[in-house]
Amino acid sequence: MLEYVGSALLVMDRVTLEKQWRGHGLGAALAVEAVHRLMPGCRAVACSPGVTDLRSSRLRDRTEWDRVSVKIARGWERIEFRLYRDNVYLLSPTSSELEEQRGVLRAQLAELGAAWRFMQRR
Question: Which pTM does this prediction carry?
Answer without folding.
Answer: 0.73
